[in-house]
Amino acid sequence: MKPTFLGHEKPLLVDMIIVESPTDCVIHTRKAMYEGADAFGVQMERIKPEYRQEETLKKMFSYMGDKPLYVTNYRGGYNKEMTDEERMEGLKLYLRCGATLVDIMGDTFDPTPGEMTKNPVAIDRQKKLIEEIHEMGGEVLMSSHILKFLPEEQVLEIALEQQSRGADIVKFVTGAANEDEMFANLEITRRLKRELKVPFLFLSSGPWCRMHRIIGPYLGSCMWLCVDEYAVFSSREQPLLSATADIVRKLDFMPTVRSLE
What is the DSSP string of 131-188? Predict the structure, then answer.
């Protein structure tokens, strides 16, 4: 049985790795192991195509030991000339090589602003793909990168639509341009926890995103996406793994329990 991203009592500390070679991937993996990573994420669109061979990938993924692996295969990086069909075949390869969770964008088979298609033909193809991934023993995260603030009802609409397509985890990235939007995103996170039947990852981008990314998992998000260092391709909006692990160890957020005496 593969390690899983599902059914954990506490949110997972996930080290996101964006590099071009297996050697660099292993270096980040080893560093993150010592800093307390519970799981790993590799953005495969940035790995050079010549390294995307089964033997090479199995060896690269093996350094993650018994920790679950999440992979993306987005349209950027070295995937710019790929079709969506080719990218999805890549996800299946990574699954066979040891990945657990694969990221299927909400506009797969129909590129759409905000990454959430309403095309019924594309949606049907997504559902069939998700069924195939499940039959292979994999788990599916569906993502939509909106990258601008959305009010509560619109975020909930996207989340419920992703859930209806069969995703095991739903993910959406909006925005936080000011303090009001940041606090609104925290409140939306609480609403998602009440309304959704599957785990979710709600993130924001922008100058006021950091608080949401740190506090969100305490309010219901299923994981922290972190980086073990700010390297060439890594996201500056994702918090440092070492700092986040320190917060998780030291922040007692549980309600006070009354004395039994």
Answer: HHHHHTT-EEEEEEE--S---HHHHHHHHHHHHHTT-SEEEEEEE--SHHHHHHHHHH
Mean pLDDT of 9-27: 97
C-beta atoms surrounding 91 within 10 Å: 23
Query: Amino acid letter at 113?
Result: P
Nearest to 222 by CA among 68, 11, 69: 11
- Alpha-carbon gap, residue 49 to 135, rounded angstroms: 26
- Token digits for 41? 């994420």
Residue 148 pLDDT greater than 60, yes or no: yes
Whether 255 shows a pLDDT value over 80: the answer reads no
In the predicted model, what is the mean pLDDT of residues 250-258? 67
Pairing state of beta strands 223-226 and 139-145? unpaired
Sole residue written with tokens 């699954």: 95
